[in-house]
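Instructor's aside before we start: the two examples that follow are unrelated to each other. I chose them only because their records fit on one page, so don't look for a connection. First example below.
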Amino acid sequence: MEIKERIEQLRTLIKYHNERYYDLDEPEITDYEYDQLLDELKKLESQYPEFNISDSPTKKVGGAVKRELRKVRHDVPVISLQDVFNKDEVYAFVEKVKSQIPDSKFVVETKIDGLTVLLRYREGNLVEGITRGNGEEGESVYENLLEIKSIPQTIPTTLPYVEVRGEVYMSNEAFEMIMKKQQESGGKTYKTARNLAAGSLRQLDPQIVRERNLDIFVFNLEISEGKEFVSHAESLEWLSSLGFSVVPDYQICSTADEVWESISTIGEKRWELPFGIDGAVVKVDNLDDRKVLGSTSKVPRWAIAFKYPPEQKETVVEDIKVQVGRTGRLAPLAILTPVKLAGTTVSKASLHNQDYIDAKDIRIGDTVVIQKAGDIIPEVIRSIPEKRPTNAIKYMIPDTCPICNSPTVRDENGADIRCGGDECLAQLIRGITYFASKDAMDIEGFGPSTVESLMSEGYIKNIADIYHLKEYRDELIEKGIVGREKSVDNLLKAIEKSKDNDLDQLITGFGIKNVGKQTARVLTSSFADIDEISNATYDQLIMLPDFGETVANSVLSFFSFNSTHDLIEKLKKAGVNTQSKVSEISRDDRFAGKTFVITGTLPNLKRDEATRLIQMYGGKVSGSVSKKTSFVLAGEEAGSKLTKAEELGVKIIDEEEFNNMLK
């Protein structure tokens, strides 16, 4: 790959992951993996200045400013730190500082994994709280910050203006409690405490912040009008005396050896801390020394952030078992000798499929190296053949389902092996859970534990039975299977509400192989009701947008079973909508042959709603901008897709213009 092409690829990747992390609070890669991408781009831009551009992600800090919250300019630019990844880079930083200031000292702190905020106090009263945003401008989250108990609303000082910088975070304990509640209720789950903390702080309802027990550590004094300090450590002591929770256990060091020892100590204990960290920070302590060292256009020369690699441990594969998923997929699972990894005890890890097991030559009895993908999900990195015992056993996924004993079959063009049975209990539980999920029928409170309880008690055997639960209201309240009266009534109300959903949600909820939300919308935009869909021919299906042979055959196969038609009849009798609410309007094909890309936050329409409208009128929605794109529908914080559209000359429209096109 040519240098220019690699640079452009890195910029696209980094912009995408910036949006996932800063704006959506849903990162897809680890901080370490992200930092490696950014570091590679910085080095390439330095080596090849002819490819440098002003709007490169290396020249920006953080994410966009969200539309819903008031924008606020920062008094002091909130810049990032230079990342380093190994001992040599740490020693090089210390030696460079020492070459200019021989007697310099350093403060080493834990780098809290949360959301940066700036707190402003006038005459001792908290008057504003701002997120980092893009470094020059943030968003006011003042009302939400008032709900965080550890943020003092008044401080004992007569100074006219004080501004401090801190990191809002969620403790591991609070995160686990909330995730347990979310899973039980079928609500949204987050991969990390940082994501949940950031998502909570950006909510428009302060009540949510209060319920989620957010916390803060203050780690820098930005402004103190009327009072000066000699060192950073001195300012932290002063902030602590005012009632702030300052970053804990910081160390003052004089040499590179001491700095590295402090970094190593934090690394050794990081998984035992009650909160998440994403590195260690090394800062020059003396504030006048910082002025001498200065900053580049992007980072200060007086500080670095050390990023720890993912922790890896050796353990033994004691056994391999399979779990049966919603679609009948047999998922092999390594049963491991328990080992403490990244803060929790790990005893299981996914092995994905038979090809994965064979490629890594993982056997029962093997010693293997494991780590947590994204510091969350345990995964087996490799086996260690030299430590293999003589009685190690090769593993093959069974040819019969471990739940219902039906024969298993391998996907024709894939690596997955599935149960061939129609009445497998494991599939039924996961299938009903998916049917009620937010992506499908969106029945709030109908999570996995509720489904399993109702199935084990015999109240539901298939998705149609959900709509007869109201007949057992008193029994459910008496037995407390899904909670007491209020919980039962809320669940029944959510079930009743789901009857009026549009047909695409029902089709999605069926969990047809290879058919997701987008495909379901195409079907319900093209056919008037579920009967038309079930009677559709291959020739009709293959002509639909984005339908290939695989998808068409999956739809035909699902509707060929008698059990499917029995289920549909039961749903009709229960009053569930089986008519397409968009099929009539879709006969107006004004967007036929047009491809839209939606980016940013629209003032009134949700992205799903805009997608549905485009498809109603025969258009297609794509996730990326190309020369074939007809329109880019852009809202605020549009990001890299907008830039790409401008480069390619693709027509850009806003929500008002889109609505005019609909009229």
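Example two begins here.
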Amino acid sequence: MTHHPRLADAARAGAPLAWAALPLVFFAVFFALPVGTMVARGLLPDGQLDLGALTDVLGRGRTQRVLGFTVGMAAVGTALTVALGLPAAFVLHRLAFPGRGLARAWVVMPFVMPTVVVGVMFRSLLSVNGPLGFLGWDGTPMAIGAAFVFFNLAVVVRTVGGAWARLDPRPAEAAASLGASPWRVLLDITLPRLAPAVLGSAVVVFLFCATAFGVVLTLGGLQHRTIETEIYLLTTQYLDLRAAAVLSVLQVVVVALLVWVSSRMRGTGPAGAATSAGARPRPVRRADLPAVAATLAVLAFVTAPVVALVVRSLQVPTTEGTRWSLQNYRALGDPEAARAAALQTTVVEALESSWRIAVDATVLSLLLGLLVAIALTRPRRTPAAARVVRGLDLLFMLPLGVSAVTVGFGFLIALDEPPLDLRSHPLLIPVAQALVAVPLVVRTLVPVLGGIDDRQRQAAASLGAPPWRQLLTVDARLAARPVAAAAGFALAVSLGEFGATSFLARPEQPTVPVVIAQLVGRPGADGFGMALAASVLLAAVTVVVMGVVERLAPDVGGSW
């Protein structure tokens, strides 16, 4: 029996879709449907497309100011992050010194820190009573920009540092042997070969800055608004779904473009770098001292907000000033303190809820992320299969940049009727958090699974192993530790998710980020003291989780 070549090619092209079938259904129900419903409510008010809404909303002075502020802050945050991240990437990945692993873990730590906690950190550092209150940055764009850099340094350090560690050192060594200075080698040899990694990380940082929610809401309030916080205000306070839908559509288009550019950057590596094992870290030389000094400044910058948060959480105001006390921490489990702060549950109970929800989200995101990563890394034997894989890669990265507010509110208006009446279902919050975590799981696992030599699978197949057996004996064995690390990433991210959860969490069962935002938004020193202590508690949990991740797979995350 003979098979038609086109049918065979179609079958090979559809193989990635078979692996991604379950994630695609999940994506359609819990991402495309809520976002599409939210957009339709605004742009299809009477069942017909109203394109006039686009020009009307985008022509408003308020919208233009929001767009300008969003792009400007994202551009400044990206430039500063790349400028500080490059020397740190070199020192932490190419130089050998005591404590290098701890320093790398410390720089990565802010990336998984809950955004609300980051906002509270910088408020404790920059407020009038904070260590840097004299700068007058509290509630200004400078505070937001500093928080952007703090949060996103890990992206540049890990992405560029991972590429730097894999660079073949021989071209640089040859240039140095011919008399080129270290700066000439850096500018003419190294940086051009690192350009795809640098540009790719810059695109990701810009994306995260432009779609930040918790940081901007905590530090900028209602005075300094980005697209993300503007969608929140339009949805919750002004009930202007039309304007919110227009901004959501704009955000989806821009995010899709940035994700596509980032994907292209990841696929464009320097010649010889992708297959080279790179050079072993070398001792520090005299020429490295400027980069070492810049890295020490980065470590100090990352440390300052953390120290300020911990110190201020241990202080309580008195008539004479402040005194050291554990009062803020004791209040976390005190029902009386919770009621005084207008909370329906204690912070400790909220942490228990956060942990249960995050575990559920982690299991779900790990299952879906594994299937997507397998789909993206299967051998692409036809151009059609390669196009399918690129499309899937773009599709499953979209939740990273689409407004969590849009997703959360979309859940409420799209999943409120049978057979999808899920608004009160306890799994809805884990589902929302899994949407955010799946892209990170995929980005963690794709380099690992993609780096497995297909000849090992072929050898297993030649011995009679079916595809599922090949997956277990080859892929699962080599990817076990990165899978565990991906689970840690998902757990940390889920613990800190705030945007969608703020819509979906019930008052009697909130998560810790929602409680922190409520405490920060209420007047009174006691509420803010509890917010400080709760932030320390949540930050400690995420740092412990990330410490385990770093021990399991210290090089994961290099493809962010």
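Confidence is low (pLDDT under 50) at residues 269-276.
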